[in-house]
Amino acid sequence: MPDARTSFTQDIPQSIERDVEKAKAVDAIFLFKVNGEDGGVWTVNMKDQPGVTEGDSGGAECTIEISTDDWRAMTDKPGAAMQFFMQGKIKVTGNALLATKLQSVIG
After folding, report:
1. What are the pLDDT tens digits along the chain (107 aa)?
2. Were both Cys, which of 61, 72, 82, 85 would link to 90 (CB 3.0–4.6 Å)?
3. What are the DSSP calls for the chain, one per residue?
């Protein structure tokens, strides 16, 4: 159950690097806002330059906001993301359909 900082500085970048073409197939830029201890803001580019950068790099087509506790719980059970969304624990703005493509790369 990694914290968000570990996920965005190690796990997700490694997942993208393992299969850059799969990441590019998502064809979107995401902004994650993880609130709480060990949280932060990260841009996940799965479009022209796949990778993760700290902060808001601009150009995000989908913004996902979640608490650090819910992030940990969701990384433990990636299939729970839709349930968390329905419960209002994940707030998605922009093109919400893009969020459904994330699990194949970062899940």
Report:
1. 578 999 999 999 999 999 999 999 999 999 999 999 989 999 999 999 999 999 999 999 999 999 999 999 888 887 778 888 889 999 999 998 998 888 766 65
2. 85
3. ---HHHIIIIIHHHHHHHTHHHHHHH-EEEEEEEESTT-EEEEEEESSS-EEEES--S--SEEEEEEHHHHHHHHH-GGGHHHHHHTTSEEEEE-HHHHTTTHHHH-
Q: Which residues contact 107 (CB under 8 A, 6 or more apart)?
A: 78, 81
Q: Which residue has the tokens 């893009």?
A: 98
Name the pTM for this structure.
0.92
Q: How many CB atoms lie within 10 A of CB 77?
A: 11
- What torsion, rounded to 10 degrees, do the Cα atoms 84, 86, 88, 94 define? 100
- Rounded CA-CA distance 56/24 in Å is 19
